[in-house]
């Protein structure tokens, strides 16, 4: 809910500022009406839009460990106390919303009652409702409310009828009802007050424009508006003649439209909306690098080297040993060449097909030379270079192994506090650098499926980690980029 309010309010504010800066003073009132309504709808939609940017992370051979909360013995399980402040806040919201809703319904009922208890006269596409009290003409849906005496004495100018008919024909009341419903629900957000004022003023611009075109007497119409400026206000749900008779309206009547300037300002909205969507809706998603399909499949491991003999050379290039794959050291396994498997149709093979095909092939002999210059990658290299685990002779390792690492995480990880009972489940993807001395640095959260600060908590725990055994290439410690998926399952 908080995320929705923040994103929608940000969008509402940005689009409203853009309206005041670029559009309000331009004589393109129909477009402005659409823009204001679109801004409201768009701002309530944007929190539900997600644009995922895939960030690939190297595939890790280590199996991610699941940390059950019941195994975190260092932290007692405490039931969350009742949050009375939250209950009080929701109660206050409910009371105020209900009061505003009753006010809204009551005003509609009063206006509807007036249409049934007072004389009505068909007038073009509208109905004139003749009321007893002194009032300026005002419109609600297809009804124009006017003073009965003024109507019979013909004291209502034609310009006023034209003005109110525009409100009826263009259905301006629907805009007002829409913004009022939003104000009832989001009464705590002052932006809707400004939106209503902008919408109502734009309605008056539209009506004024039609009057000026129809009667072609701008000075008379301006004086007419000024003479009516001190009349009593009408219902806040109605479109009325006297709404904001300001300098803006008087200037707009005599202003000439510039098509080129209007087109330019409309064009500014495109990069504005694009920037808004990218800044609010973009989400970086971590994804392990998939194995690429192709004509050749490169496989490695003991299952695929059952019939393969590895000849080990010493510093002088002499074969000093012959080993099976299972007898190779970790360093020697890194130097084992990949076994290429092809099928006749150049289609990728399944793992089962690869094993079956490998078992049918004749035994092969591979030479492993640890002292070949091409295998010595780090001598005289930049010490700031960062390697992936795929290029290492020995992978970095937590003291005691990964089981000890996940036990360390479980003992130090603190469950994030949430306002209600939430079952945490999913993964946190992180990357960090294991320095040549075994310390950790450059922590980065690639994806946090939990929310509630679980990713930040995982980084905090990593910062407490003791030194790792660094990754090496031919015995030389190097900086290693390490990706780590951590799974956490809440207690069931």
Mean pLDDT: 80
User: Uncertain regions: pLDDT < 50 for 5+ in a row?
Assistant: 60-80, 291-298
Percentage of β-strand residues: 15-25%
* End-to-end gap: 26 Å
Globular, elongated, flat, extended or rod-shaped: what is the shape? elongated
* Helical residue percent band: 40-55%
> What number of structural domains do the residues give?
4
Q: Helix segment count?
A: 14
Cα-atom radius of gyration: 37 Å
Largest beta-sheet details: 5 strands, mixed
Oligomer: single chain
Total beta-strand segments? 19
Class by alpha and beta content? alpha/beta
Brief descriptors of the model:
492 residues; alpha/beta; 4 domains; 5-stranded mixed beta sheet; elongated
Provide a descriptive summary of the structure in words.
With 492 residues, this protein is of the alpha/beta class. It folds into four domains: 1-48 and 258-289, no CATH class; 82-257, no CATH class; 297-375, no CATH class; 386-489, 2-Layer Sandwich (Fusion Protein Consisting Of Minor Coat Protein, Glycine Rich Linker, Tola, And A His Tag, Chain: A, Domain 2). It is 42% helix and 20% strand. The protein is built from 14 helices and 19 strands. The protein has helices at 2-23, 29-45, 84-117, 148-152, 158-169, 172-185, 191-215, 218-227, 247-254, 259-281, 330-335, 351-360, 402-412, 454-463; strands spanning 51-57, 66-68, 120-123, 126-131, 138-140, 143-147, 239-240, 282-288, 297-299, 308-313, 319-323, 339-341, 364-369, 386-388, 425-434, 440-448, 472-473, 476-477, 479-489. Strands 2, 14, 15, 16 and 19 form a five-stranded mixed β-sheet that branches. A five-stranded mixed β-sheet has the order 3-4-6-5-7, sandwiched between helices. Helix 6 runs antiparallel to helix 7 (191-215). The two termini are 26 Å apart. Residues 60-80 and 291-298 have low confidence and may be disordered.
């Amino acid at each position: 809910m908080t995320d929705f309010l923040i994103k929608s309010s940000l969008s509402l504010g940005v689009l409203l500022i853009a309206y005041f800066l670029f559009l309000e003073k331009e004589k393109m009132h129909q477009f402005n009406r659409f823009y204001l309504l679109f801004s409201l709808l768009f701002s309530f939609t944007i929190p539900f839009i997600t644009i995922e940017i895939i960030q690939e992370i190297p595939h890790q051979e280590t199996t991610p460990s699941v940390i059950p909360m019941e195994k975190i013995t260092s932290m007692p399980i405490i039931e969350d106390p009742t949050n009375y402040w939250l209950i009080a806040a929701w109660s206050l919201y409910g009371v105020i919303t209900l009061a505003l809703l009753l006010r809204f319904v009551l005003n509609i009922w009063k206006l509807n009652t007036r249409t049934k208890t007072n004389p009505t006269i068909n007038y073009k596409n509208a109905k004139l409702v003749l009321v007893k009290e002194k009032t300026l003409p005002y419109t609600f849906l297809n009804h124009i409310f006017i003073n009965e005496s003024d109507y019979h004495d013909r004291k209502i100018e034609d310009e006023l009828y034209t003005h109110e008919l525009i409100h009826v024909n263009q259905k301006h009341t629907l805009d007002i009802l829409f913004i009022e419903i939003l104000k009832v629900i989001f009464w705590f957000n002052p932006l809707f007050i400004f939106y209503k004022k902008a919408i109502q003023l734009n309605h008056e611009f539209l009506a004024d424009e039609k009057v000026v075109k129809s009667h072609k007497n701008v000075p008379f119409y301006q004086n007419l508006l000024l003479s009516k400026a001190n009349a009593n206000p009408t219902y806040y749900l109605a479109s009325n003649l006297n709404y904001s008779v300001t300098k803006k309206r008087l200037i707009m009547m005599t202003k000439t439209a510039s098509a080129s300037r209007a087109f330019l300002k409309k064009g500014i909205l495109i990069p504005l909306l694009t920037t808004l969507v990218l800044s609010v809706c973009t989400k970086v998603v971590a994804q392990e690098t998939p194995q690429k399909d192709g004509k050749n499949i490169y496989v490695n491991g003991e299952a695929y080297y059952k019939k393969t003999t590895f000849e080990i050379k010493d510093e002088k290039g002499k074969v000093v040993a012959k080993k099976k794959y299972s007898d190779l050291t970790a360093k020697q396994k890194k130097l084992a060449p990949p076994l290429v498997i092809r099928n006749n149709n150049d289609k990728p093979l399944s793992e089962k097909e690869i094993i079956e095909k490998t078992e049918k092939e004749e035994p092969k002999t591979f030479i492993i030379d640890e002292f070949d210059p091409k295998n010595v990658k780090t001598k005289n290299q930049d010490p700031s270079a960062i390697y992936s685990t795929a290029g290492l002779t020995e992978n970095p390792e937590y003291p005691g192994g990964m089981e000890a690492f996940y036990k360390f995480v479980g003992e130090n990880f603190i469950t994030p506090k949430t306002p209600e009972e939430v079952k945490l489940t999913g993964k946190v993807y992180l990357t960090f650098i294991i320095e040549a001395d075994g310390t950790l640095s450059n922590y980065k959260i690639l994806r946090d499926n939990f929310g509630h600060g679980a990713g930040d908590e995982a980084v905090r725990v990593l910062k407490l980690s003791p030194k790792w055994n660094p990754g090496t290439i031919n015995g030389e410690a190097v900086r290693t980029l390490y990706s780590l998926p951590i799974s956490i399952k809440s207690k069931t």
